[in-house]
Amino acid sequence: MFLFTMGFLLVILQPSTGQFPRACANTQSLLRKECCPPWDGDGSPCGELSNRGTCQRILLSLAPLGPQFPFAGVDDREDWPSVFYNRTCRCKGNFMGFNCGECKFGFSGINCTERRLRTRRNIFQLTVSEKDKFLAYLNLAKNIPSQDYVIATGTYTQMNNGSNPMFRNINVYDLFVWMHYYASRDTLLGGSNVWRDIDFAHEAPGFLPWHRAFLLLWEREIQKITGDENFTIPYWDWRDAENCEICTDEYMGGQHPTNPNILSPASFFSSWQVICTRSEEYNSQQALCNATSEGPILRNPGNNDKSRTPRLPSSSEVEFCLSLTQYESGSMDKMANYSFRNTLEGFADPRTAISNISQSGLHNALHIYMNGSMSQVQGSANDPIFILHHAFVDSIFERWLRRHRPMLEVYPAANAPIGHNRENYMVPFIPLYRNGEFFIPSRELGYDYEYLQEPALGSFQDLLIPYLEQARQIWPWLLGAAAIGGIVTAALSGLVMACRKKRGGTSPEIQPLLTESEDYNNMSYQSHF
């Protein structure tokens, strides 16, 4: 009955669109470089009459970037979104959205004043009906056009600087596939030239905040199209898994009986078509992915290159990664050593935290292990396992935030690769979000993880670690203070003894300040930090 209802919704819901706000995907908005659509509630731009927000010039970060991208003025994503728009809605209070028509993550109600906390759960802890509902929601998202957004099918130059808009509609699920592609695509330099060492969502500090925002926006869209305000993304805990436990027809699709590279015809997802997987073709044509169907989802888990990824990640590797105290380090890219971000992303060895791009650890290991659509960065979100995987990666990020409790200043303000400084706006999100806005605990964004709520042996340790780390940092000062205190005490004691001798010698009742007793010799000051 539930699946019938989902099918009925597909019929009655009217078509809509994809990534750039539909209301701003027109010649007038592009030529004026303004994206300040009216809020339906009062008809004014950004809901200004209702004090929800105002149309204002965007404030771009002027902090210097790293050396990885040696160009300027050649990529529409530079100083996002200023190539397309330099005026957007700036929302007030807890309002959010490209027209300030929604609530910030973690808030709800007519005036967005009610705090709300949702819980993401392990997919294997869902009831059969909850799991089936999740699968039906995915299928609905793949088949219903987005109401609010469209995608760009050409660069700003190809649009004749805005006078010839090039946009098209897209379904809700593929909207997010396209956004992931657009953030990670190569720079088109003209002719047959491209620049590959650029990525606004990977290989740099923004990797974790970007995907955190991505999942929240995806979750929000599912809530909107289904009317299920309580929906949350489930996660797959892949630690110590011996195989792809969710690769069954009951969950995310089993293997085809005669072709192991595609999904079983009994799976929900066997009929899905992928988009944005042919990067070399787009590069040779100097074109953007236009969301044309490119074939079925490919997946052959475990039949990957074992020399690069011998197995799925282990619990001990996750724990080592969590012990790293530096969020980012060095060049702040995939060559960074002792970086929590780089180790979790998978470019550094999960046992040493030393960069090793010939191997794929943690996050990257799962992508390579899937041996198919998931294994190619730009099109990896085509496989719905992507959502479950990144929800768990985000939970590890959350554990690190809770354990180390970093200040916002820990996130690099300058010299990160292009698009990854703290105050840079994330590509290609509109409304605008800065990287630093998602470098905060998940509860402040309105969600938590089921396994992080449960009391466990690790929870008390996670609570103590930030204090132990602070104590470790000040321990040399404590030792120095103790030594100075001991010297001062000894000097004062000697002075007191001298004074007493002057008064008439040592009385039998007076005991030495320090004794050579067994108890004293057994005393010691030890650091367990």
From TrEMBL:
Q: Name one GO cellular component term.
A: melanosome membrane
Molecular functions (GO terms): identical protein binding; metal ion binding; tyrosinase activity
Keywords (alphabetical) are: Copper, Glycoprotein, Melanin biosynthesis, Membrane, Metal-binding, Monooxygenase, Oxidoreductase, Signal, Transmembrane, Transmembrane helix
Enzyme class, one word?
A: oxidoreductase
- GO biological process, any: melanin biosynthetic process
Listed transmembrane segments: 474-498
Needs which cofactor?
Cu(2+)
Ranges for domain Tyrosinase copper-binding come to: 202-219, 383-394
> Which subcellular locations apply to this protein?
Melanosome membrane
Q: What's the superkingdom here?
A: Eukaryota
Query: How does the entry describe its membrane topology?
Result: Single-pass type I membrane protein
Q: Which SUPFAM superfamilies match?
A: Di-copper centre-containing domain (SSF48056)
Q: So what EC number does this one have?
A: 1.14.18.1
What Pfam families does the record point to? Tyrosinase
Per the record, which residues fall in region Disordered? 293-313
Cited PROSITE patterns: TYROSINASE_1, TYROSINASE_2
The stretch of residues making up the signal peptide is 1-18
Name the protein family.
Belongs to the tyrosinase family.
Name of this protein: Tyrosinase
Organism from which the protein derives = Penelope pileata
